[in-house]
Amino acid sequence: MSASGAVWRNWARNQAVTPVRVERPSSVAAVQRAVVAAGAVGLRVKAVGSGHSFSGIALAPGVQLDLFDLAGLIGVDTVAGQVTLAAGTRLFELPRLLRPYGLALPNLGDVDRQTISGATSTGTHGTGGRYGGLATQIVALTLVVGDGTLLRVSATENPELLPATRLGLGALGIVVDVTLQCVPAFLLHAVEAAEPLEEVLEHYLDRSDHSDHYEFFWFPHTETALTKTNTRLPLESGRSPLGKVARFVDDELLANGVYRGICALGAVAPATVPGFNRLAARLTGRREFTDVSHRVFLTNRTVRFQEMEYALPRALVPAAVREVRALIEARGWRISFPIEVRSAAADDVWLSTAAGRETGYIAVHRYYREDPAAYFQAVEAIMRAHGGRPHWGKTHDRDAASLRTDYPHFDDFLSVRDRLDPERRFSNSYLERVLGR
Ligand SMILES: Cc1cc2nc3c(=O)[nH]c(=O)nc-3n(C[C@H](O)[C@H](O)[C@H](O)COP(=O)(O)OP(=O)(O)OC[C@H]3O[C@@H](n4cnc5c(N)ncnc54)[C@H](O)[C@@H]3O)c2cc1C
After folding, report:
1. Pick from 67, 62, 47: which is nearest to 4 by CA?
2. Residue 311, φ and ψ in degrees, nearest 5
């Protein structure tokens, strides 16, 4: 245990809190003791992952639990292809942990700095019209609930709690381990190309349906989108990775180094942004390579930004992107960051942004030194008009009253919360806003 006094900030530097105290439990029993001790003095308690959420979901003004020491592989079922991980395991540790068993996660998001419990608790997803977000891979988990007791949830133990606890927003307890369904390790053949935006929008639904992992980035103020189409291949197909130099020039120098300078300049001299975006779109050439899945899914993001992302019924995505484009033009904003468009399969996780419907995601970003409020609020209005659901870990202005209408199982989730955390030991002001009480 450590006394606090230190300010905790998230990755994007838009959320900060000074916890009453910070604890770093290294065992499940220590997590239980921390929850009971917090309750005894009327403090709230919250686990924090890697602080990669943009929303205030991870803020812990009472007791902050840092699960850095509760990490690693707990068990492997080689027959079922399932692995059990301690809650604080970082996603970047997974390739090393899973390699000896020839396993991999079927899909990943853009980065791997998050913890497995933080990522699943907010609905972190990658892209793939036939693939779900990370929480859909959870087949079992163990939680410390409000009274400090351990609760096991699996297909055979409290199975009725699985649809809520797989994606619990940190509101149902402290997750101490998760069991994930993996797949045999695989390769991805990546094709990246610059294409006209209108054609990309016309083909978005078809490509999302028929590609394994399809996404595109549109550079505002240009007619160009960068498409990424990844096709799954068995390991035996053989790798043909990007050379070290090509990877460094494209991903480190252009995507991060030069880009940081462009964003910083754009923040003080917005008129430069459209020209730079057109240049970036021109410089983005065709690349084709094949590598192990995590090396293709992941990118290294060192330019700090703010983000809002909405999940829409997939068929509405092209129209919504066109509306965002018209909005940017009408308002005269200079937006340096591309808009990212992805997809996910419908799932049965109650608070998943893809619950019950084939989903497309639209993400908007601003450099972290720019005020995103006006842009995000106007884009949010467009997304709401299309029945959009906000990513729980990203910026949005929604509250429980409006979210209830988006999620058929919203009240079922609240009933589970009443059962597992009747005293709201795990709440914070973000959860009060989005869950209502
Ligand atoms: C650069 C960057 C790239 C990103 N890319 C993507 C992407 O591609 N796709 C996507 O969907 N999202 C993406 N995100 C968002 C990010 O994946 C989520 O916000 C994720 O929740 C962050 O995980 P974390 O470990 O940092 O958790 P935190 O942000 O620290 O916490 C998130 C929530 O999880 C809870 N939590 C953490 N650990 C536990 C536990 N043990 N028990 C109970 N609750 C717990 C916290 O209390 C909090 O409610 C990105 C964010 C950044 C900054």
Report:
1. 62
2. -100, 125
Q: What's the CA-to-centroid distance between 353 and ligand 1, angstroms?
A: 14
Pocket test for ligand 1, best of 67, 108, 114 (most atoms within 8 A of CB): 114
Residues 207, 158: Cα–Cα separation, whole Å: 39
Helix (H) or strand (E) run with residue 364 in it: strand 359-367
Please state the separation of Cα 41 from the chain's center in Å. 34
Q: Residue 261's pLDDT band (boundaries 50, 70, 90)?
A: low
Q: How far is the CA of 307 from the centre of ligand 1 (A)?
A: 13
What is the band of 14 on the pLDDT scale with cuts at 50, 70, 90?
A: very high
Ligand 1 atom closest to the Cα of residue 115 is 25
- Tell me the CA–centroid distance for residue 196 and ligand 1, in Å: 33
CA–CA gap between residue 304 and residue 11 (Å, rounded): 8
pTM over 0.85: yes
Ligand 1 atom closest to the CA of 51, numbered from 1: 30
pLDDT score recorded for residue 243 = 75
